[in-house]
Amino acid sequence: MASNLFDRLDRGRPTLAKKEPKPQTEPAQLLLNWLHHRPGTTITAREIRNHGPRPIRDREIAISAAQVLTAHGWLTPINSYTWQIIRQPLTPNQ
């Protein structure tokens, strides 16, 4: 049976490796990583939205990430949209 041109061209082509999707980092973890490199002792939702990592520049995501960090002791609320940054080592001293 005669094959068409495309079948013949495809025969010698190597198979493409499947790209694994990059694992998504949680917004709170992105915010925490960014806060460790940022100077200052306070942060506002506006600063997170304007200067923070791109995936958390949405208002709801930024506030939600800050609330998660507040629940874990990395931030202390000053008012609804301002937090005190708690600087502590990432790994506990042993």
In short:
With 94 residues, this protein is α+β, with helices and mostly antiparallel strands. It has helices spanning 5-11, 27-37, 45-51, 59-71; strands spanning 42-44, 75-79, 82-85. The protein has a domain at 25-85: Arc Repressor Mutant, subunit A, CATH 1.10.10.
Q: What can you see in these coordinates?
A:
The chain has 94 residues and is α+β, with helices and mostly antiparallel strands. It has a domain of 61 residues: Arc Repressor Mutant, subunit A. The chain is built from 4 helices and 3 strands.
Give a topology summary:
Elements: H1 5-11, H2 27-37, E1 42-44, H3 45-51, H4 59-71, E2 75-79, E3 82-85
Antiparallel strand pairs: 1-3, 2-3
Helix pairs in contact: 2-4, 3-4
CATH topology of the domain at 25-85: Arc Repressor Mutant, subunit A
In order across it, which strands form the biggest sheet? 1-3-2
Mean pLDDT: 86
**Major sheet characteristics:** 3 strands, antiparallel
- Identify the CATH architecture of the domain at 25-85: Orthogonal Bundle
Share in β-strands: 5-15%
Please write the CATH class name of the domain at 25-85: Mainly Alpha
Helix share bin: 40-55%
What's the overall geometry? elongated
The rounded Rg comes to 23 Å
Any low-confidence stretches, pLDDT <50, length ≥5? Answer: none
Q: What distance lies between the first and last C-alpha atoms, to the nearest angstrom? A: 73 Å
Order of helices and strands: HHEHHEE
Please count the beta strands (DSSP E, at least 2 residues each). 3
Number of helices: 4
Structural class from helices and strands? alpha+beta
